[in-house]
Every structure is written in C-alpha cells, then in structure tokens.
Amino acid sequence: MRRRLIGVLVGVAFLSMGMALSQRSFQWFPSGSSTRSDTRRHSLGPTTAFAASSTMRTQAFVTRAVDGDTLVVRIDGNEGEKYVRLLGINTPETVDPRRIVECFGKEASAYMRALVEGKRITLAADLEADERDKYDRLLRNVFLADGTDVNLAMVREGYAYAYLSFPLHAARKRELRKSQEEAKRAQRGLWNPNTCNGQR
C-alpha cells in the first residue's frame, strides 16, 4: 500500500512538472514569431518572402522625388531629411549636370513623383546590400502603405532597369530580373520600340 502511494505521488509530481514546462514553453515560444507579426503589421505586399527576411524597417514621409530612383525623406524619430537611393533599380538620368537627359528619364521621374511624393512609406533594408552608397544615400527598398513595392513597380512598368551588379539578396535579384523580363515582353515604358527600345 505504501509503495503504491509513493508511486502515485511520484507520478503526480512528474505530471505537474510536465505541465509547467509545457506552459513555460508556450509562453516563451508563442504561435507566430514577432517577425511574422511585424510583417503583417507592415503589409509589405507582393514580395512577402523577401520582405519578411528584412529585419530592419523604418517608417518615413517622402518630401520629394529627386528623380526615378532617389527620394528625399523624413524618417520617423529623426531630425532633418535623408536621401534614399532605391535598391536594385536604375532609372534614366535626368539631374546629373555632367550628362544629358536620357531617354524616358522625365517619364520615370514623373511616375515616381506620382507614386510616392507626399506619402508615408516603409523603408526596408537588404541585409546582403550596403547600408549607403558612395554619395552617402541610404540604400533601401520602398513600400507604400497599401503594400505596393515601389522598386518592383518601377521595373515592372518599364520606368527602370533592374540594377543587379551590386550585392542584393538572391531572392530580390530574382524578383527584379523577372519583373524586367516581364516589362520587356510587354514592351512597357522604356522597352517600347516607339520610346527607347531599351536603349538609354
């Protein structure tokens, strides 16, 4: 009888320990990590696989679009304005005094202004890319509040070339390359024979 009672007490003790550990595990590792929660909150749109891999995201307001691939923004919690160069894209030149205005450059600048000027955006870093370029501009992917991926939109609609010679996340390179091929096939924007036919 005594042995049976001891056995029951030991069993209850082990059961209690197991339940406690299970509860602690649930509290430490809740369903859905904070990264997934952040991704849903920021609604980063069509590039969910790539965007979810970006752990550095900040909110900002676009004061102006310099051209098709450079913005001036006010980052939340920071004083002053910052220049942002969109990662992985290159638009025809319009503002460099050393160069002529390139084919479809004005159209690319106008499209960028219509997309982002005066709007709130999310700036997403690419951990495989540089933080800044040689002009000290922040290198970022840009997303609108509705989830629009601005970098991809510029390439897909034929306003920008995919710029893949610098370090970028492999998934991002694939997305940009695919978007450029789509624009070429559809002869959109600068790929149209009646505009630039893909030439600068």
Structure class: alpha+beta
The gyration radius over C-alpha positions equals 25 Å
What do the pLDDT scores average to? 79
Largest sheet: 5 strands, mixed, barrel
Kindly report the spatial arrangement of strands forming the biggest sheet: 1-2-3-6-5
Kindly state the percentage of residues in helix.
Answer: 25-40%
Number of helices: 6
Unreliable spans: 5-48
The general outline is: globular
Please count the beta strands (DSSP E, at least 2 residues each). 7
SSE pattern: HHHEEEEHEEHEH
Report the portion of residues in β strands: 15-25%
How far the N terminus sits from the C terminus, by CA atoms, comes to 93 Å
List keywords for this structure.
about 40% helix, alpha+beta, single chain, 6 helices, about 200 residues, two-stranded antiparallel sheet
Outline the structure in words.
This protein has 200 residues and is α+β, with helices and mostly antiparallel strands. The protein has helices at residues 2-28, 34-42, 48-52, 105-116, 150-156, 170-186, and strands at residues 57-65, 70-75, 82-86, 89-90, 120-124, 138-144, 161-162. The strands form two sheets. A five-stranded mixed beta barrel has the order 1-2-3-6-5. The N and C termini lie far apart (93 Å).
